[in-house]
Amino acid sequence: MPDLSHLPEPDEAARQASEALTARLRDEIEAAGGFLPFRRYMELALYAPGLGYYAAGSHKLGAGGDFTTAPETSPLFARCLARQVAQVLEELGGGQVLEFGAGTGALAVEMLRALAALDRLPEQYLILELSPDLRERQQAAVADLPEALAARVCWLDALPPRGFRGVMLGNEVLDAMPVEVFTWTGESVLQRGVAWEGGRFVWAERPAEPGLGAAVQRLQAETGSAWPPGYTSEYSPGLAPWVASLAEVLAAGLILLIDYGYPRAEYYSPERSRGTLMGYYRHRALDDPFFLPGLADLTAHVDFTAVAEAGVGAGLDVLGYTTQAWFLIGAGLDQVFQEAASEDPREQLALAGQVRQLTLPGEMGERFQVIGLGRGIEGPLVGFAGRDLRGRL
User: What molecular functions are annotated in GO for this chain (predicted)?
Assistant: First the structure.
């Protein structure tokens, strides 16, 4: 077991669940001949039924969890997004909202309240959630809404059928997609994976499979600069198929994706030679992806150029790309802040602090990026009106 001396210890049930997942991972490694691609390790660590981070019952979000997202940081976030959603629903003459991975339900609840105030409620607010315990938390949060709003919320186990019209929302969804990890030797590509040695998980390497090797060779050629030998990073093979699956369903509307990441040239910069893969446990960042499997979150930044390419390849338009700060400003953050203003100085100070956390470069403002993909949308989107950075993709 890892050294827990500087971190909060898990309770006994959580420790036993992590040990059960460790045993399953060891069995997969043995069955695979001693080498498990990291993508498969990450898939099981996050999504193994009943044991993975998003499939077990751990408390993940908020002050008592492992990380806090923008909807939990401030209701102003959802109110700004609601203005963008309202614009699209108005242009389409109605439609639905589909949120992927709705966390605690904070975004859905505040979004519905804001859309009601804007007189632009969707016909339905759909939530596609893979985590059983998060779905329960969402249902509890939605139950506190007025009945007329709560009745519009419906949970899905899979994408809706073709013909969807409206807005699809993904806030911190792409970073949880399992990734391949690779190393560039200077001439060839190595695939990084996981082995079991000395009673623990360790990194292992082998020549990359043809598909991964070709993808990494293309990335290296596109960066315009030579990677140093030993350069290590990530590649998300599931990203393009996922975007294509959304495009197949979308008849008209907007796919709005918000996450931390970079355009490709920045993501695969020679200076970023150790990649972006990180673990998170109780609000602590970890550089060890093998720490307490199933109890720690694993994430990798998003290549937003790949998102744009996937959209175009699936027949979608790239409708905008910018930072979270500029998106919120374009979507009316100043007005939303003024509407939420309070005569209580403490509440006003708290609101100002939330705005800083959402928009400052050192907080979420520039680390998080927003991209809009869509079909059948004519007018420019308000969220990208302040500073459209599509030229950086």
Answer: protein-arginine omega-N symmetric methyltransferase activity
Q: Is the dihedral angle over the CA atoms 72, 73, 75, 76 positive or is it negative? A: negative
Asked if 282 and 290 count as a contact pair (C-beta separation under 8 A), the reply is: no
* pLDDT tens per residue across span 231-256: 999 999 999 999 999 999 999 999 99
Which 3 state secondary structure label does DSSP give 119? coil
Amino acid found at 321 = Y
What's the chain's length in residues? 393
Q: How far is CA 299 from CA 118, 119, 384, in A?
A: 35, 37, 26
pLDDT at 186: 92
Domains of the chain: 70-176+240-266+301-385 (3.40.50.12710)
Among 19, 28, 45, 26, residue whose Cα is nearest residue 296: 45
DSSP letter, residue 392: G
Q: How far is CA 217 from the centre of its chain?
A: 26
